Amino acid sequence: MKTPADRLKSAFRDLPFAGGGLPGVGGEIKAEPEHFQVEEMLPYEPCGDGEHLFVTVRRKQWNTADVAAALGKCFGLKNVQIGWGGRKDKQAVTTQTFSLLLPLDLDLERIRVRLSQLPFEILGLSRHRNKIKTGHVAANRFRILLSKVDAQAFPRAAAIAEKLRRIGVPNFYGVQRFGQGMANIDRAMAMVDQGRPARGKKDDLMVSALQGALFNIWLVQRLARGEGRTVLPGDVAQKADSGGLFVVEDVAEAQQRFNAGAILYTGPIFGPKMKAPAGRAAVHEQQLLASYDLDLATFKRLRAPGARRKALLRLDDLEIIPDAQGLWFAFTLPPGAYATVVMREFLRVE
Predict the structure, then answer these.
(1) Which residues pair with 60 in a beta bridge?
(2) Residue 190 — pLDDT band, cuts 50, 70, 90?
(3) Alpha helices in 231-278 (DSSP H)
(4) How would you label 51-69 residue by residue, b for 16+ Cβ within 10 Å and e otherwise?
(5) Residue ranges covered by each domain of the chain
(6) What is the CATH number of domain 172-310?
(7) 122-153 pLDDT per residue, tens
(8) What is residue 134's DSSP assignment?
(9) What pTM did the predictor assign?
(10) What phi, psi does 93 have (nearest 5°)?
(11) Rounded to an integer, what is the distance from CA 73 to the centroid of its chain?
C-alpha cells in the first residue's frame, strides 16, 4: 500500500499544460549560466541613511546563501545581521540586493575596497534604516535563452505565447521546490508522523515542500474539473491593484472582474493563519487535506502559519526575441513564482 507521501508525489508528477495541444518548441535552457538571467526587484528604494547597507550584486553560479555568507565574512557579520528577499537559482546570472548591518562610521569607500575581493560585480551601495527580510521582493524579471531549437521554433513559440497572454499560466511550484526525487516531501511527512514542529530553516523548507505539493495537487484538480478560468462561490480572490484578499460572494460580479484582469483567485498554502475560503471552494480544500490524512491542526503543530497563493500567472509583458543562438524570452513574475514553470509550456518536456 502506498504511503501518504507516495500518494502526494504521484498526484502531481504530470502537470497539465496551459497551452493545451499546441506543439512545443523543444530546445534547452540553462545550457550556460548566461542563458538564464534574473533581476530581483525590491518593493522600495533605499532611503540613503541608516545602519543597514544595501549591496546590489551581480553574480554567476553562486547560490543566495553562499553570497550572503561571503558578504558577511568581509565584515565579520553573523547570519542575523544579513538580509535578502528570496533565494535564486545557482545556475544563472543573478542581480540581487542584500542588506548588511554595518556601523555608520564605516564609509562607503572602505566598504567598497573590502567588497572588491569578492568574485561578484558590485552594482550599488546605499544605506537604509531597515533590514531586507524574506519576502521583501516586488517581482523578478527574467531573460532566458532557449537554445538548440529548429527553424520552426519561433512561430510555434509565438502561438503558445499568444495563448498564455490570454489565459495565464498555472502558478505551479517548480520541481526544485521538492528536492531530488521529491525527498523533501518524505521528510516533511516524517515530521507529521512524529508530531514534531519545524525547527530551523531546514525544517521550514521541508514543510514548505509539503505545502507546495498540496497547492499543486489542488490546482491540478481544479484544472481537471474545467474550472481554471471559473470563479467559484467562496473562492478567496486577490485584487490585482492592491493585493487585498476577499471571499467571493457575488460570483457573477467576481467572474467579470476576473475576466477583466482586476482579480485572481488563490489557492491554499495550508496553515492556521491562512485566509479560509467558504462554500464550494472550502469543500474542495477540506477534501484535499482529508484525502492525505491531514488537517489545519497538522500545520499548526508544524508551526507553519499558511497563506494564499495566486493560482494563475499573467504574462502581459512576455516577449520572444529570435537570436542566432535560439530564442530569448523576457517576462516578469511575482515573488515565489517559477520561471521554469513558464518555460515548460514552451519546451513541452519534463
Answers:
(1) 93
(2) very high
(3) 251-259
(4) bbbbbbbebbebbbeebbe
(5) 44-136, 172-310
(6) 3.30.2340.10
(7) 999 999 999 999 889 999 999 999 999 988 99
(8) T
(9) 0.91
(10) -100, 115
(11) 28
Q: 44-136 and 172-310 share one CATH topology? A: no
Place of cell 495550508: 270
DSSP state of 172: P
The CA distance from 110 to 97, in Å, is 19
d(CA 261, CA 243): 13
Enter the CATH code of domain 44-136.
Answer: 3.30.2350.20
Are the beta carbons of 160 and 169 closer than 8 angstroms?
Answer: no
- Cell numbers 564609509 correspond to 107
- Say if residues 321 and 144 touch (Cβ distance below 8 Å): no
2 pLDDT above the threshold of 90 = no
Query: Which residues are annotated as catalytic?
Result: 89
Question: CA-to-CA distance for 319 and 146, rounded, in angstroms?
Answer: 13
Q: What DSSP letter does each residue of 304-329 carry, written as one string?
A: ---EEEESEE--TT-EEEEETTEEEE
Q: How distant, in Å, are the alpha carbons of 24, 25, 152, 317 from that of 327?
A: 13, 10, 11, 16
